[in-house]
Design a protein that fits this description.
The structure holds two protein chains of two kinds.
Chain A lengths: L13 H17 L3 H14 L5 H17 L3 E2 L1 H7 L5 H9 L2 H10 L1 H7 L2 H5 L2 H19 L6 E3 H11 L5 H13 L5 E4 L4 E4 L16
Antiparallel strand pairs in A: 2-4, 3-4
Chain B lengths: L12 E2 L10 H19 L1
The chains are: A mainly alpha, B mainly alpha.
Chain lengths: 215, 44
């Protein structure tokens, strides 16, 4: 359809353009092209007939998890308008870095999310939640020891998780930390011997949209 | 028909939530806990 010999996209009726973009978006999700999915689904949402509440809800069911992955949270007004309440605890977990809330929600809502076809997509948010928690640890650590602000002791990350009710042993904590670096959620490296994560002085936590989201 | 489309599509998404601002209840608890551990570490 994108080929030049094909008729101009805008020549088609809005309903067909919306349907087309909706499926382009869903395919892009399967292909892990989240930027493309975001553009296509945002187009579908923006051009959806204003009375087509069911279609909008359908677009949003996929668009919200895609946006979350890219670091954009739906406003409370959007959630209320389309009854997207199933995402509220996930969003709260992302905001505060609450790994326990995230885990509990994914477990409690597992059946629903699988049925809606968003479970695997939402599962990818786990690292965004870990990243947020590490950012909180980084901030608190910087207050307590300003001269060592770029050196986050991994036991402090472990303490934060334990406080939330997520007991992980040191190997697991280091594994999470290594994944955060590998997937570009955090800029830094790990000193295994010293149990320390050394993070970049400038911009240690790049925007979520810059993370590597493919497996 | 553009007139049939929804004009209320701005400001649906929040982007500036992910900052260095740590002032919630959990950060205070974490700070207290880490400070306690630090003291214990120095006392030992």
């Amino acid at each position: 359809v994108d080929s030049r010999q094909f008729a101009d996209f805008d020549a088609f009726p809005a309903s067909q353009r919306v349907t087309y973009k909706f499926y382009v978006g869903r395919l892009a999700v399967f292909d892990e092209n989240y930027q493309e999915a975001q553009e296509a689904l945002e187009y579908a949402l923006a051009h959806c007939h204003r009375g087509a509440a069911r279609n909008k809800a359908l677009v949003l069911k996929y668009l919200v998890p895609v946006q979350l992955l890219l670091g954009r949270l739906p406003t409370p007004a959007l959630i209320a308008a389309h009854g997207l309440h199933q995402y509220e605890p996930i969003i709260a977990a992302m905001r505060s870095g609450d790994v326990k809330l995230f885990n509990d929600t994914m477990e409690a809502q597992q059946f629903r999310f699988i049925q809606e076809g968003t479970y695997l997509l939402l599962e990818k948010l786990r690292y965004a939640v870990y990243r947020r928690l590490l950012r909180v640890v980084h901030g608190v650590h910087a207050q307590l020891e300003p001269e060592k602000r770029t050196q986050i002791p991994l036991p402090q990350f472990q303490t934060a998780l334990a406080l939330q009710g997520v007991p992980l042993d040191m190997d697991e904590v280091e594994c999470v930390a290594a994944n955060l670096i590998f997937r570009k959620y955090v800029r830094g490296y790990i000193s295994h011997k010293n149990e320390v994560m050394v993070v970049a002085k400038a911009d240690p936590f790049p925007p979520l949209a810059q993370a590597s989201l493919t497996d | 028909d553009a007139r049939q489309e929804d004009p209320k599509n701005q400001a649906l998404w929040e982007q500036d939530w992910d900052d260095d601002n740590i002032n919630d209840d959990f950060s205070h608890r974490l700070k207290a806990e880490l400070a306690k551990q630090q003291q214990q570490g120095q006392g030992a």
